[in-house]
């Protein structure tokens, strides 16, 4: 993946598609301007629909929320948006901050955009993500979690919702 920053908090994400003969860059989407952009940080999204959480089964067969590493100078909200698209193929709206973990990872409440399918089989990066699924809380016990502390934050957040 190639990343080109145009200005603070305005970025265009490029997906490099390689074939044996040549490579082609496909523009995904610009990160919107946020009213209060947060400093650059690793970040991800908590996306909940009908009491199910959008989760990833990663290359190591462990489950996690979509998210990852910030690019240089990228606002945390933009990292959450970009990483979610890269790992799930879904465009989301990034909402409020839910939690900052001890390692600095920022978790945001995100929503799948209305023009997006429930799941997208055409994910940009399939090497690190084996599967994407909507998982009910009742199935959390059976998951092999990559970050066990994510589970408690998700459950606490869901419990606090009206």
TrEMBL record:
Signal peptide: 1-28
Short name of any one Pfam family annotated for the protein: NUDIX
PROSITE patterns: NUDIX (PS51462), NUDIX_BOX (PS00893)
Gene3D superfamilies in the cross-refs: Nucleoside Triphosphate Pyrophosphohydrolase
Keywords assigned: Hydrolase, Signal
Required cofactor names: Mg(2+)
EC number(s) given by UniProt: 3.6.-.-
Domain Nudix hydrolase: 38-160
Segments passing through the bilayer: none
Alphabetical list of InterPro entries matching this protein: Nudix_hydrolase (IPR020476), NUDIX_hydrolase-like_dom_sf (IPR015797), NUDIX_hydrolase_CS (IPR020084), NUDIX_hydrolase_dom (IPR000086)
GO molecular function: hydrolase activity
PANTHER family hit by this protein: GDP-MANNOSE MANNOSYL HYDROLASE, MUTT_NUDIX FAMILY PROTEIN
Family classification: Belongs to the Nudix hydrolase family.
UniProt-recorded name of the protein: NUDIX hydrolase
Organism: Simiduia curdlanivorans
């Amino acid at each position: 993946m190639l990343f080109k920053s145009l200005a603070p908090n305005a970025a265009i994400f490029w997906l490099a598609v390689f074939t044996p003969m040549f490579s082609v860059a496909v523009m995904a989407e610009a990160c919107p301007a946020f009213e209060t952009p947060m400093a650059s940080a690793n970040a991800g999204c908590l996306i909940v629909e009908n009491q199910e959480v959008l989760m990833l089964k990663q290359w190591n067969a462990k489950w996690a929320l979509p998210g990852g590493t910030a690019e240089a100078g990228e606002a945390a909200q933009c990292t959450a948006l970009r990483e979610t698209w890269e790992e799930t193929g879904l465009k989301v709206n990034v909402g409020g901050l839910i939690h900052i973990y001890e390692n600095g990872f920022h978790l945001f409440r995100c929503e799948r955009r209305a023009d997006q399918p429930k799941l997208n089989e055409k994910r940009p990066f399939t090497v690190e993500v084996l599967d994407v699924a909507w998982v009910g809380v009742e199935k959390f016990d059976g998951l092999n979690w990559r970050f066990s502390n994510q589970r408690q934050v998700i459950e606490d957040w869901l419990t606090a919702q009206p």
